[in-house]
Amino acid sequence: MIFMKLIYADKKGKVFLGSNFEFDLNTIFSNGKLKRKAAILVTGIKNFAGTSYSKQLENVLKRHEIIIVKHIKIKPNPNELLIVQVMSNLTKRFDFILAVGGGSAIDTGKLIKNCFNNSAKLVAIYTLPGSATIVSPFAVFDNNEFKIGVAADNLIPSYSYINTEIIESMGSERKLIAIADIFSHAVESLYSKASNIVSRTKAKNSLKILIANKVELLPTQALVVADIQAGLAERVGLVLFPHAAGHYLTYKFHIPHSIATMYFLPQYLIFLLNKGVDIDLRYIRYAEYLELLLRKKKLMRKIKLSKNEIVELFNLTHKYMDFAYENVPVEIKREEYKIILKNYVKK
Fold it and tell me: Average pLDDT, whole number, for the chain?
């Protein structure tokens, strides 16, 4: 058993790692002074419900006499309008938001906080690493046009908890997807013009952990640390074109975000290298390694973009993620992006 420990903290939030789910949450709820408070509960639509952890969470809520005024079960890629509609008829006040899951559940909690109660605490139980949402000020969701986001420092969860047993129970595919997301956050923010010495160091810390291990052998705590370091790097450096184009695939073809980015990342790094950027060749090899694994597991399906879809990709990403073009380390002309997109364009 791993005793719960604080693995990251700043003025905005604290991240705890432990293996005793119920005991650890009791400690966090006590320290957070959440007894007899009213809460919004956000969970995914599957995976957590019906598990022993769900029952343990119920025990913690009862012990602390917490009232759940609304339980929202969220699908991947939360829709802003749907969340607002669900919350708009809520008449009861709430003191904090408890989000249980991966990026989608926690981003939903952030959106609720941003739209309905900015003074509410946000408590995250992080069950699927990859998005780094527990240390980032971003909330990503769908509107009626694209996959977009908001950013504010107070959206970083006040308390985040990661249970080692839950993470270690992830299947090999979920672990691979999480690592692909961590890698893309780290490597894109590393080469972003918006990054600084501190954020680049954190990105390199994350990448050092990843490339030193094969996916299946990456230890749980190392996975978590790599995720946190990548998220802290992304706070400053943001992301580049592969993320923006990946958002388009998620919006248009419902390809999971972590996988969508990998359609473009290996070729993008090679392209930057050919443009004279000092890209570490180990990162290119690792990107190609991740892409190969995703294809072997049939997690990347064939995509062909029409001329109209290419135009739509550029229009939407420029509208909502223009920073992905502004922060590129060297100037890239629009026609040059065809080199990066070449594998996905209809002949």
Answer: 93
Exposure class string for 227-256: b at 16+ Cβ within 10 A, else e: bbbbbbbbbbbbbbbbbbbbbbbbbbeebb
Is the pTM higher than 0.85? The answer reads yes
Cα–Cα distance for residue pair 199/64, rounded to 1 Å: 38
Q: Classify burial at 117, counting beta carbons within 10 Å of its beta carbon; exposed 0-12, middle 13-18, buried 19 or more.
A: middle
Model confidence pLDDT, tens digit, residues 114-135: 989 999 999 999 998 988 899 9
Tokens of 258: 């972590």
How far is it, in rounded angstroms, from Cα 243 to Cα 146?
13
d(CA 206, CA 160): 19
Average pLDDT score over residue span 254-268: 94
Whole-number Å distance between alpha carbons of 196 and 199: 5
d(CA 219, CA 209): 10
Q: What is the mean pLDDT of residues 318-345?
A: 92
Query: pLDDT tens digits, residue range 191-240?
Result: 999 999 999 999 999 999 999 999 999 999 999 999 999 999 999 999 99
Please give the Cα distance from 76 to 201 (Å, whole number): 31
Q: How many CB atoms lie within 10 A of CB 180?
A: 27
φ, ψ of residue 280 to 5 degrees: the values are -65, 120
CA–CA distance, 28 with 5 (Å, rounded to integer): 11
85 to 80, 90, 112, 121, 224: CA distances (angstroms): 9, 10, 11, 21, 34
Q: DSSP class of residue 45? A: S
Angle (CA) 233 313 81, round 5°: 75
Task: Tokens 């600084």: give the residue.
Answer: 196
Query: What CA dihedral angle connects 191, 341, 257 and 116, to 10 degrees?
Result: 80
Note whether 260 and 247 are within 8 A (CB).
yes
